[in-house]
Amino acid sequence: MTTRGKMTQSLCDGGLAALAREIESCRLCPRLVSWREQVAREKRAAHSAQTYWGRGVAGFGDAAGRIAILGLAPGAHGANRTGRLFTGDRSGDFLFAALWRAGLANQPTSRSRDDGLRLRDVWVTAAVRCAPPGNRPTALERDACLPFARRELAQLANLRVILCLGAFAWEAALALRTREGGRRPRFAHGAELRVAGTEPGEGGLVLLASFHVSQQNTFTGRLTESMFDAVLARSRELAG
């Protein structure tokens, strides 16, 4: 990385750290706050000896990356436990193994915030930052949380592609990145949409859709390793 690139990433990291503190302390949505804290108190038997995170969860990864992966929300016993998105659950097992195969992660697994995982050219984030009951945030909760994603993505200076995991993330990305009331394509695995930047001086980028990496999809074969590997390859191709 050039000296200028290192300076840009350092400034970006500082802003992202401040934003992370805001996300972690947010109590804007009473239903989500109540649920995330209830789960953290009651725990799952397999994790009974652990201290759950039980707060909002910020994005993480390579702040100089060209690809952002946008998920739905923290898992109740995954990120709501570990404090890092997709970390410590089956969805994350599938995602990080794929990132490792693609050369975008230094290891294929992620179990805790301090397990040494490092992402390359990728930032991982979510439309909603608190674990929702039944893994189903409401549209109002999504809209209340989207300013965090907007501010987070705006600090990724090299961003070229937003890979949306599932229809919920796709709709969130459309809300984030399109101001005009024109064409808003429906979610479909492999769908692509080129959009203009939302701030003065921003360049365009591409929204790319994939089925979510949930157990419901990966265990049933709706989303296979080869399908997701192809989506990641397309993400890198579009990133340039």
Question: How would you summarize this macromolecular structure in one to three sentences?
Answer:
The chain is an alpha/beta fold. It contains 8 helices and 6 strands. The chain has one domain: Uracil-DNA glycosylase-like domain (Uracil-DNA Glycosylase, subunit E).
Superfamily (CATH H level) name: Uracil-DNA glycosylase-like domain
Provide the spatial order of strands within the biggest beta sheet: 1-3-2-4-6-5
- Going by CATH, the architecture would be 3-Layer(aba) Sandwich
Rg to the nearest angstrom? 17 Å
CATH topology: Uracil-DNA Glycosylase, subunit E
Q: Biggest sheet, open or closed, and with what strands and sense?
A: 6 strands, mixed
Report how far apart the termini are. 17 Å
**Total tally of structural domains:** 1
The topology string of helices and strands comes to: HHEEHHEHEHEEHH
Average residue pLDDT: 91
Lay out the secondary structure.
Blueprint (H helix, E strand, L loop, with lengths): L2 H23 L4 H13 L17 E2 L5 E5 L7 H4 L7 H12 L20 E5 L12 H16 L6 E5 L1 H11 L14 E4 L9 E6 L4 H4 L6 H15 L1
Parallel strand pairs: 2-3, 2-4, 4-6
Antiparallel strand pairs: 1-3, 5-6
Helix pairs in contact: 4-8
